[in-house]
Amino acid sequence: MSRFNKFVLDNPKIIIGVLAIITIIFAAFIPQISFDADMEQMIPDDDPVIKDLEEAIEDFGSQDFLMIALRSDNIFNAGTLKKIDELTNKIEKLDGVKKVMSPLNVDLIESSVMGIEINPIVDKLPQTEEEIDKYRQRILNSSNVGKLVTADGKAAAIMVTMEPFGDLSTQKMKALTAKIDKIVNSYRDPEEIYIVGDTYVGHYAENAMGSDMRVLMPLVVLILVGILYWSFHSARGVLLPLATVIISVIWTVGLMVILGIPLTIVTMVMPIILVAIGSADGIHILNKYYEELALGRSKRKALEETMREMNGPVIMTSLTTGAGFAALITSFVTPIRQFGLLTAFGVLAAMFFSLLFIPAALVLQKLPAHFNEETREHKEWLVKGLTVLGKFMAKHAKVIVGVSAVILLIFIFGAFNLSLESNMMNYFEEDSPIVKGTDIVEDEFGGTIQVSIVFDTGKKDGVKEPVVLKKMVETQEYLNSLPHVSQASSLADLVRELNQALNMGEEEYYRIPDTRQAVAQELLLFTMQGGSGIDSMVSYNFDKAIVNARIENMGSGELEKVIDKIEGYVENKFAGEDDLEVKVVGLPKVMLRLMDRFVASQISSLVTSVVTVGIIVALLMGSWLAGLVSILPLVLTVGINFGIMGYSGIPLDAVTTMIASIAIGIGVDYSIHYLSRYRNEIRNGKSQDEAIAITSATAGRGIFFNALTLILGFGILIFSHFRAIDVFGYLIALTMLISSLASLTVIPGILRLMPARAILRKKYRELDYEYVEAN
What pTM value is reported for the model? Predict the structure, then answer.
């Protein structure tokens, strides 16, 4: 390290030039950054749940649809009907739209002398009272009630089916959704109009992510600037740490684009986190540098002493923080793994930049003209307060440790109330168009989450067998009988409707024909009469069919009960059938798969981060006891975090599962800086009480400003468009407060109860010759 320090101080211009070139290279990739809010991307592509869903899409087309819901006092008026007609026509013309079905273009199957006729519900747009009344009677007496219109005439729905993913790239899908959103926005008022569907959720989320980044990032930077100026009272005290965090963000986002990783609801917080935590190294380095200058040392000597004493803690804190984030790589959820990898890289980039750029920049700068006025460290009220705190902790060590243990037990008890959640609807605020639209659709038309049951006969035209169709009817009836499930539909509905129409509309003939030949003839007649839409109900050669139903938006726990009932029915009803395979697919399975893995991911990342951090501290400090002491405040922090979540009903989800590992990775920094300074004071011959008081006043000052930066920086996240990020910001800010307080209270108490030299390197416990030689 001595050679490294000498090289940095002797070649400042070369170092700054090389760093600038690397930064420019990374920055060149940033404009290519992309967004992705698709829940399916959270699960690995080779997971059975994703494979089943992709197979269903291949057989039956895209399972994604958009519903445009209109609600007013009465939709049967000339103005609203014209609006529905124009919306339908404009959306139909968009490239990538496969089909648009609305109350004005739906076809009706009717009896005729030729057997059946497939007629449009209206020949022209109804505009007169007579035309509107005739249209009202016609659609309210059809099977479209509850699907495209409500019985009370207060709501209508337009169903938009997009081309399958295989034919329509992700970027085109996003662009198409944006066009539909723009068209719908131009028709809002006086009716309530909302868009519902997975692709719209993704579209809204991506726009919200972009808005959050444009608003929250500048706010975090402003907070950082304010705290840095308060801490150092100088431009250099602001600019050097600020440059460190900005460059680390540029490097990380550039790497993100190079690796093809998009911004998601999870990874979007990564740049904000790096701004908040990336300043820590710079704060501690400048704090020590000004401390050395205050002792009357020359600039070169102050920098040498600063780098000698701070390189170790900075490297340790960066490695442990990086390890905390890297532990998230063990997660099952893909965006969480990406977040862990990228943030760990960003932390190490900030360390690299702090150890190179800040000393190099300080070499090139002149000393402040009025240094004593600029760095009034020992006259500050903060230092005096921290000194008093340190003395109090040393005097009442047993009480502090005992009270901390009791608090931990109380909150661990609350952690047993933790619940799991994977429904993305809970990520949005109550007043967002996503939640409002979902509420309206569920009030008027039933559920918004589609679940599907695939029937695979294994042979061509197997679905035309009456026994298969009757089993599909039974399955639909079961689905419709379940609470919170509605609108079960399949090819069997079409076959029954055709059979009824061929028998002069007699109600008793709304059933499946008795022979396979009759079914085939009815479907052929339907196709010859211009009927369409069969391809979304059956596979190309009629070996597979699908039953779709809608489930109301609900928490993952309730959703799991519903899916368990459906899968239980499928298993009991169709188990053992050699010629028919039936399975449940759809977004609910994806959601539950995520929920199942949240606990495992939480445990694996938590254990990995605690063990890794403890080992790194122990190895670098040369003391296993030091490693243990460093993680004790983190145990308290994590326990309180889970307790608060349990008591307040905040669930574990894709975002909150990261909090514990992040708290460990960041919170250990406080422990390391405190322990490093305490060890130096003990090696310098100070008593335990003196060492604790000095450490609390010096390292404590850096801890205070670092924690304040993080608390306010993460607190900014409460202004996010996403409720999940809002909660994440609140909890992370709270954990930063707890871990910093624990470092300034629990660690001094523990150290006071231990022998003075217990946490020194074993061979230095009698005499630390490194310190003596250096001084």
Answer: 0.74
